[in-house]
């Protein structure tokens, strides 16, 4: 009996350690080394860098693996040497301790095009970071293209009177000269993402029609949602039109003004959900501070019952994931959440329940739409990318 109790104690201790490790991973970013820009889709020849922080003062051994995925982000049934030159499961050796910061952390970076391995096929990829014992710490997704054609997205207000004030209607035209819709040898799948949110795609298994070497996907309705809200605490002690107050206790605390979601459209300068960590230091990667950011959403005009509907805060900073860590708590007239974030410029929004619906929708909302056509040859056995289209709705046709 004592033996089994010991096993259970060790097991739950390990689970707790894994949870704590994941909780202490912050500021996960993928960017192109040459341009410094974050992307959803990378070219196969880009210098892709993974960067993340671990809230710890002692360096850990982290190991990186990579998987080829299908359009649903499930593991592809192809051997690793078919999509990768070299070997993965390599230790991340490039790291820097934070310097002169209240919150101690270590910034880790890994170049995905190095002497040890290089991606050689297009498609969806899952980057897996494990600890010294093989436990999953976190994973991050990226999309790789290679010589793909460029499609066209047309965005209009829908002519359906039930949705005309709240939705966008898309028509996607994808060049596919040698594509065969009814072939037993090939599978084609169209996936459309809004604002780089990989957790909530529209998946289409057949075009509406094919004409002149193009696949046409028509009358696609998307909730327009709200513009992302934002704040900039790159100058950590400064207040602003978004930041009401900054405190210094055990660490910095950034108190935002309460957000009120109005019943009419309001233009916000946003990055469509993205974020950028930076500060006025010599090396922002390891000299930027962390601050506990106080988010507060007014229950006024919500048109939902905050006691019955779960409300979450999402953005690229948490990879649009929902969960208890990002669920708001209802206190009096406000829904509140505190999240530890690195200095920088952040976009965020509030969504309802597991469906991740926006609380309000206005057709004027500016969104980025990305359409990707995947093709699977039964002889190859994996989904590759043959065409990509992208469009912003800022110039929507009424």
Write a brief structural summary.
The chain has helices at about 1-25, 80-85, 285; strands at about 25-30, 40-45, 50-55, 65-70, 85, 90, 95, 105-110, 115-120, 125-130, 135-145, 150, 150-155, 165-175, 185-195, 200-205, 210, 215-225, 230, 245-250, 250-255, 275, 290-300, 310-315, 330, 335-340, 345-350, 355-360, 370-375, 385-390. It has 3 domains: about 1-145, Sandwich (Immunoglobulin-like), CATH 2.60.40; about 150-225 and about 365-395, Immunoglobulin-like (Sandwich), CATH 2.60.40; about 230-360, Immunoglobulin-like (Sandwich), CATH 2.60.40. The chain is mainly beta.
Q: Estimate what percentage of residues fall within beta strands.
A: 35-45%
Q: How is the biggest beta sheet arranged?
A: 5 strands, mixed
CATH superfamily of the largest domain: Immunoglobulins
Just name the CATH architecture of the largest domain. Answer: Sandwich
Text of the CATH class of the largest domain? Mainly Beta
- Average pLDDT over all residues: 90
Low-confidence stretches: 6-19
N-to-C terminal Cα separation, in Å? 72 Å
Key terms for this structure?
398 residues; Immunoglobulin-like; 3 domains; mainly beta; five-stranded mixed beta sheet
Report on this structure.
The model is unreliable at 6-19 (pLDDT under 50). Helices cover 8% and strands 44% of the residues. 30% of the residues are buried. The protein is mainly beta and 398 residues long. Strand 7 and strand 8 (106-111) form a beta hairpin. The chain folds into three domains: 2-145, Immunoglobulin-like (Sandwich), CATH 2.60.40; 149-224 and 366-395, Immunoglobulin-like, CATH 2.60.40; 229-358, Immunoglobulin-like (Sandwich). The strands form seven sheets. A five-stranded mixed beta sheet has the order 2-11-10-4-6. The protein has a five-stranded mixed beta sheet with strand order 12-30-29-15-16, with no helix packed on it. Strands 19, 22, 24, 27 and 28 form a five-stranded antiparallel beta sheet that branches. It is built from three helices and 30 strands.
